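User: Hi! I have a protein structure encoded as tokens and I'd like to know what sequence might fold into it. I'm fairly new to this, so please keep things simple.
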């Protein structure tokens, strides 16, 4: 930080036990007052302590580092959506036509499973919606546009617009003058209302 030093790593950030508990609780609920209560602060001061703790640089840094370590980046989200939209799961089916959960696990396709349950000794698997993944990717790449129908009537007061243009032209000394050699004349009087 000073003199080109690198910022402290999460291991180098020193928090007391209550502050660390506060940080972990805050990451779970994203509510400073609830986190302060769960960390053992007084209910009378939980709101104020939570507010203050989030403004202490070392606590904020600890929270931010933990949050950044768990949140997917833009590229990771796009990769996950791409894998969901394009995954070929045909080889995950067993001889009886059901999905073999061991193959899912072995081929690291668990990100494709929304839920599963065991029913009469068989594993029932509900897969994620591939079309939804494709739609999310399409939105990111701006492949879809929404058409909005607009029915409006616009009113222009032309005389005001002409007066405005004349005023601007006069201010800039570019107002057209009667130029008899070329046959051009000042026609501003024809626009007056």
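Assistant: Happy to help. Inverse folding works backwards from shape to sequence: for each of the 193 positions I chose a residue that suits the local structure. Here it is:
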């Amino acid at each position: 930080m000073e003199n080109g030093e690198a910022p402290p790593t999460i291991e180098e950030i020193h928090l007391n036990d209550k502050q660390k508990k506060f940080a972990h609780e805050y990451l779970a609920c994203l509510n400073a007052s609830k986190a302060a209560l769960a960390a053992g602060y007084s209910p009378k001061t939980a709101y104020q302590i939570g507010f203050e703790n989030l403004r202490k640089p070392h606590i904020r840094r600890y929270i931010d580092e933990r949050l950044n370590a768990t949140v997917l980046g833009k590229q990771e989200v796009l990769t996950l959506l791409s894998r969901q939209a394009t995954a070929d799961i045909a080889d995950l089916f067993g001889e009886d036509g059901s999905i073999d959960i061991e193959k899912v696990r072995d081929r690291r396709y668990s990100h494709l499973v929304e839920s599963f349950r065991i029913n009469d000794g068989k594993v029932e698997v509900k897969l994620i919606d591939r079309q939804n993944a494709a739609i999310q990717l399409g939105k990111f790449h701006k492949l879809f546009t929404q058409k909005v129908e607009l029915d409006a009537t616009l009113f222009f007061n032309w005389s005001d617009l002409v007066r405005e243009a004349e005023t601007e032209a006069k201010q800039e000394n570019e107002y057209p003058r009667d130029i008899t050699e070329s046959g051009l004349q000042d026609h501003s009087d024809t626009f007056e209302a």
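A useful reference point when you look it over: The longest strand covers residues 113-119. Feel free to ask if any position seems puzzling.
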